[in-house]
Specification:
single chain; FAD/NAD-bd_sf; FAD; oxidoreductase
C-alpha cells in the first residue's frame, strides 16, 4: 500500500499537458483542490477526519482517448481475434479493473465476452473502429447534442 491509512479522492479535470514535458504540473492547483475538499466535507465527514484538509496534493497524469471512453476490442486485421486490446482508460480505469479485466480475459481465452453480454453491455461502443471515420470517436459536438 502506497500510503497506509489514506484514501485517494480525485477530480477529473485540470489543464491538458504534454506528457513529454516533465515540467508541466498542476500539483496543488487550488481550483482543483477546493471542490474536492468541499465534496469530502459534505459527503464523508461522518466517515473520515476532514478538519486538516488534504494530506497530500499530487497531480496525476493519465492518457485519454479523444472521447474519454475505453478501447476494448480485438486487434483484428491479419491477427483476427488473436490479440485483445484494452486501453485509453482516461483516468477512470482503475475502478473498472475487475470488470474490464474479466471481459478482456474472456475475450483472450474464449474469443467473446460472456460477462459483458450477460450484463447487457454492448462492447461495440468501445471498439477501436469508432475512430476510423471520426477521430473524436463517441464524442458528440455540442451542436449535435442540442439538435
Amino acid at each position: 500500500m502506497e500510503h497506509p491509512g489514506l484514501i485517494k479522492i480525485a477530480m477529473h479535470g485540470g489543464t491538458p499537458c504534454d506528457a513529454r514535458d516533465s515540467s508541466s504540473s498542476s500539483s496543488g492547483d487550488s481550483a482543483l483542490v477546493e471542490p474536492v475538499a468541499r465534496w469530502i466535507d459534505a459527503v464523508l465527514t461522518d466517515h473520515v477526519e476532514t478538519a486538516g484538509g488534504p494530506v497530500r496534493r499530487v497531480a496525476c497524469m493519465y492518457s485519454m482517448a479523444p472521447d474519454e471512453d475505453f478501447v476494448i476490442d480485438f486487434l483484428g486485421g491479419e491477427f483476427g481475434k488473436d490479440v485483445v486490446v484494452g486501453a485509453g482508460f482516461s483516468g477512470h480505469g482503475f475502478k473498472m479493473a475487475p470488470a474490464v479485466g474479466r471481459i478482456l480475459a474472456e475475450m483472450a481465452m474464449d474469443g467473446e465476452a460472456r460477462t459483458a453480454a450477460e450484463a447487457g453491455v454492448e462492447l461495440g461502443f468501445f471498439r477501436i473502429g469508432r475512430f476510423v471515420d471520426n477521430p473524436k470517436g463517441n464524442l458528440k459536438d455540442s451542436a449535435e447534442d442540442e439538435a
